[in-house]
Design goal:
This protein is an alpha+beta fold. It has 4 helices and 7 strands, in the order E-E-E-E-H-E-E-E-H-H-H. The protein has one domain: Nucleoside Triphosphate Pyrophosphohydrolase, CATH 3.90.79. Strands 1, 2, 3, 4, 5, 6 and 7 form a 7-stranded mixed sheet that branches.
């Protein structure tokens, strides 16, 4: 059985919202990361991924994002205790709130960074490089019809 984690590639103008994970965290302590968290079981539900991400953004850094969220990519990883996690990243546009480390047990610091700053930062893991590059690519897509976008994504 997988745990499900969601993350937000939140952007404002030409920068991305990044957190430095608390050193108290068991997974990726002290590393740069998108804001996110584990999905809680709810039984029959809809939009659980998006609602979870909105909750995590508010709980961890005190911000809201625009209604539209765009799927970026998914990966999996294994925690130190052997639990397998599916990680799902969504592209989100910042709406309101000035981010701050609202949950210090999870967030050490908050930064707005460019794509290049993230990729070149010594505290980034390889998977963050892939995630930010794909999120940046999706933001730079020219305006296309829905059918053209779906065709492009399936390549």
């Amino acid at each position: 059985m997988f745990l499900i984690n969601v993350e937000g590639a939140v952007y404002r103008e030409d920068k991305w919202l990044m957190i430095e994970r608390s050193h108290k965290e068991e997974h990726a302590a002290g590393m740069l990361s998108f804001v996110g968290g584990m999905v809680d079981p709810e039984g029959a539900s809809s939009n659980i991924l998006e609602r979870t991400l909105r909750r995590e953004l508010m709980e961890e850094v005190g911000i809201n994002v625009q209604e539209k969220m765009t799927y970026v990519r998914n990966t999996s990883f294994v925690l130190a205790d052997g639990q397998e996690v599916v990680d799902i990243v969504f592209l989100c546009e910042w709406q309101s709130g000035e981010p701050y480390p609202k949950s210090p047990d999870e967030v050490e610091a908050v930064h707005w960074m460019t794509t290049d700053e993230i990729i070149n930062h010594p505290q980034t893991e390889f998977y963050l490089h892939d995630n930010i590059r794909e999120a940046a690519r999706l933001r730079n897509l020219p305006k296309q019809s829905t059918n053209e976008q779906e065709s492009y994504r399936s390549r």
